[in-house]
Amino acid sequence: MKRNFKLLLLMVLCVVLTACSQPNNNDTNKPETTTTENKTETKETNEPAEKPAEKTEYTLIMLPNDGGQINPQTEAIIEEMNVALEPFNAEVNYQSADDYAVVSEAILSGTAQITTGSGATYVQARMEDPDVIPLFVPAPNGNLDEAGYTSYLATNIANKGEYEGLSEEEALKKLKGKSFSFVSATSTSGRLVPTQTLWETFGPNGTNDVQNRTDIFEKTESEGGIFSEVQFGGSHPANVELLTNNRVDAGAFCCEYADDFKDDLYIISQRQVSGDPTWANKKYMKQEHIDAIVKHFEELTPENAKATKIFAPEGEEAGEGKEYYMDNNNRFIKVDPSYFNFLEEMYKEEGKK
Questions:
Q1: How do the domains of the chain map onto residue ranges?
Q2: Which CATH class name applies to 56-145+276-350?
Q3: CA 135, CA 151: separation in Å to the nearest integer?
Q4: What is the largest distance, in Å, between two alpha-carbon atoms of the chain?
């Protein structure tokens, strides 16, 4: 009996030892281990493949050309931006807008993140959101003091006799009671700067005919303004056409839009305007991407530019309405918000009642 008990105990022990030596076939997700001489290698099984980083996409919003297509200059700017962003797996795409009000709303809402042109639209957007910042402006020979363009107030040459020989101030006073055309409500050189010029003449520090800046472009003389009729031509060429056809007594325009009509117009007043910036909302862009774009454009020259429409060939003209973005000797200069302080102050004053 005692002998049989010992034999039974030995059999149970053998079964237990055999069970413990068997591998756990259910543990399929553990690393597979192999042993070689003095070295143990572990191979991970069922390891998921690493996903490639998703591309960051930004939208540049801008007005199209007269045919409703992307302007070649805008296309060139986007091409260079994408060169700058290539190392970051990021790119800029194009979206068209009907007017600058749409551009502003898109930048403020984040529907688009970057744009180029219209210093007035930039200033208005920044006043609503301080995260809106200028990046750079084009400047002749890289000289920021020479950046920008000229804003003109003019009349048809047939009216020259009314203004010739007068000081600028006296000539401007002659505009009271006449019809006038601005370019658009958001145009820097076609509305904001002319308003400032007229405010200095007809405001509280001048003849005191108007008490608010907005009265100059929102009201007629019978409503408390200074002009018998206020129009908005919609574009600089359209305003020049109004003037050359003598359909308004006076009007505003900028740059070289009247170069072909110099003999048809008489200049009453002119002011220099800060250059239009490329600007963005940093709230919706990575800072390293903004920095890369700015650095790339600061270093851009006719020799290293990938886009062929940035710099005009020697002797060819460039600018708005032309094939090329800027003259051959122009360079992009980095700017900060202080560069547009004078425009911002104009708008702030204009909003006061």
A1: 56-145+276-350, 149-273
A2: alpha beta
A3: 23
A4: 143
